[in-house]
TrEMBL record:
GO CC annotations on file: cytoplasm
Similarity comment: Belongs to the zinc-containing alcohol dehydrogenase family. Quinone oxidoreductase subfamily.
Subunit structure: Homotetramer.
Source species: Pseudogulbenkiania subflava DSM 22618
Domain Enoyl reductase (ER) per the UniProt entry, residue ranges: 12-334
Domain of life where this protein originates: Bacteria
InterPro entries: ADH-like_N (IPR013154), ADH_Zn_typ-1 (IPR014182), ER (IPR020843), GroES-like_sf (IPR011032), NAD(P)-bd_dom_sf (IPR036291), Quin_OxRdtase/zeta-crystal_CS (IPR002364), Zinc-ADH_QOR/CCCR (IPR051603)
Record key words, sorted: Cytoplasm, Metal-binding, NADP, Oxidoreductase, RNA-binding, Zinc
Compartments in which it is found: Cytoplasm
Family matches, as Gene3D superfamilies: Medium-chain alcohol dehydrogenases, catalytic domain, NAD(P)-binding Rossmann-like Domain
Location (main, coarse): cytoplasm
Coiled-coil segments on the chain, per record: none
Organism phylogeny: Bacteria, Pseudomonadati, Pseudomonadota, Betaproteobacteria, Neisseriales
Gene Ontology MF terms in the entry: oxidoreductase activity; RNA binding; zinc ion binding
Name of the protein this chain belongs to: Zinc-type alcohol dehydrogenase-like protein
Length: 337
C-alpha cells in the first residue's frame, strides 16, 4: 500500500523529511478496524513528532492523526462497526498513523462519519473535536447540556483547529465566550463561529479584558501558549476557577496565583486514553458520535478551510511547512491517493 513516512527526524525543508513509501497492508486483530483512508488532516502534533532529533527509525514510521475513510475489514472482537461503514477518528500516537492507504485503529476511539460531511470535511474534525470536548466537558467539568449557561470562558487561540471547536461547543453549552485572534481574518472567523467578544492577541490581554468588562472569567481554555500566558491566566481566572491547557510548557510554571485563588489547572492530551489503554477508551467513540450528531443537525459547523490532493510526501511536506509558519486558520486536509 502507498504511505508517507519517515526514518529520520529532519527539518521540513529537507527532501527526506517525509518520503513516499510502499508498505504491507496490515491485518486487523482484536478490536481493530482496517480502514481504507480517504482523507487526512494535518495538526501541530504531526510537526512536533517530525521535528529534528537524533533518532533513526528501524522501519518507516507513518505520521498522521486525523482521518476519514471506510472500514475494509474488522478484527474478531469488533462489535461497533462492520465493513462498509464510513468512519472518522484521530487514532493512537503509539501506532502507525493515518498517512497511508490503509490503517489499523481500535474501534473504541472511532466514530461514524457525520452523514452530512464528505470525507475531506470529516477528516478535519476528529483530533480537534476530541481535544475540545474532553478539555471542556471532562477536564473543566462543564455540562454540555447547559447547566453552566451564563458562565464565562476565555479561549486563547480561538481561530486554530481546537479553538474553532471550543468556541462552538462552549456556545452550545450556553457560555459567554471571549476569544483571542491575531489577524482581522482570524477574528472574523471566531465571530462567525459564535464568539461573543474577540480580542487582539498582540495587545495586553488582561487590560483588554478589563476594558471590555471581563476583569475575571470562570474558565480558560488555552490552545496556544502555556508559558506565554501563564501569568496572565493567573491574573484573569476567577477565584476557584478552572484552566485547561493543551500545549506543553517550556519552563517551570509558578503556582502562587493559582494557590491563592484555589484555582485549578489541568492538562488535556487527547491521546491519553489510547496511549494507556484506559478502561474508558470508549468515551472517545461516544463523543465522536455526539459530535457527528451535532454536525448533522446543524448545531455546529465543520472547520475545513483548505483541501489539497493527492496525499503524498510533497504535499505533506508543504502542509507541515504551512503549519509551522503559524498562519493557519481552521484545518487543512489532503484527500485521495
Amino acid at each position: 500500500m502507498k504511505a508517507v513516512a519517515l526514518t529520520r527526524y529532519l527539518p521540513i525543508d529537507h527532501p527526506e523529511a517525509l518520503l513516499d513509501v510502499e508498505l504491507p497492508r496490515p491485518l486487523p486483530q482484536g478490536h481493530d478496524l482496517l480502514v481504507r483512508v480517504e482523507a487526512v488532516s494535518v495538526n501541530p502534533v504531526d510537526t512536533k513528532v517530525r521535528s529534528p532529533k537524533d533518532k533513526v527509525e528501524p522501519r518507516p514510521r507513518v505520521l498522521g492523526w486525523d482521518a476519514a475513510g471506510v472500514v475494509e475489514a474488522v478484527g474478531p472482537d469488533v462489535t461497533l462497526f462492520q465493513p462498509g461503514d464510513a468512519v472518522y477518528y484521530a487514532g493512537d500516537i503509539t501506532r502507525q498513523g493515518s498517512n497511508s492507504e490503509y490503517q489499523l485503529v481500535d474501534e473504541r476511539i472511532v466514530g461514524h462519519k457525520p452523514a452530512s460531511l464528505d470525507f475531506a470535511a470529516a477528516a478535519a474534525l476528529p483530533l480537534t473535536a476530541i481535544t475540545a470536548y474532553e478539555g471542556l466537558f471532562a477536564r473543566l467539568g462543564l455540562d454540555p447540556d447547559g447547566a453552566d449557561a451564563g458562565k464565562s470562558l476565555l479561549v486563547i487561540g480561538g481561530a486554530g483547529g481546537v479553538g474553532s471547536l471550543v468556541i462552538q461547543f462552549a456556545k452550545l453549552a450556553g457560555l459567554t465566550v471571549i476569544a483571542t485572534a491575531g489577524r482581522p481574518h482570524s477574528a472574523d472567523w471566531c465571530r462567525q463561529l459564535g464568539a461573543d467578544l474577540v480580542l487582539d492577541r498582540h495587545q495586553p490581554l488582561a487590560a483588554a479584558m478589563t476594558l471590555h468588562g471581563h476583569p475575571h472569567v470562570d474558565y480558560i481554555f488555552n490552545a496556544a501558549d502555556t508559558d506565554g500566558y501563564w501569568e496572565t491566566m493567573g491574573e484573569l481566572i476567577r477565584p476557584q476557577g478552572r484552566i485547561v491547557t493543551i500545549v506543553e510548557n517550556r519552563g517551570p510554571l509558578v503556582q502562587d496565583q493559582l494557590k491563592l485563588k484555589s484555582a485549578t489547572h489541568v492538562w488535556e492530551f487527547m491521546f491519553t486514553r489510547p496511549m494507556y489503554r484506559t478502561p474508558d477508551q470508549i468515551e472517545q467513540h461516544r463523543l465522536l458520535e455526539t459530535v457527528a450528531g451535532w454536525v448533522d443537525s446543524g448545531r455546529i459547523r465543520g472547520t475545513l478551510s483548505e483541501t489539497w490532493s493527492p496525499i503524498n510526501a510533497e504535499n505533506l511536506r508543504q502542509a507541515h511547512r504551512l503549519l509551522e509558519s503559524g498562519s493557519m486558520v481552521g484545518k487543512l486536509v489532503l484527500q485521495g491517493w
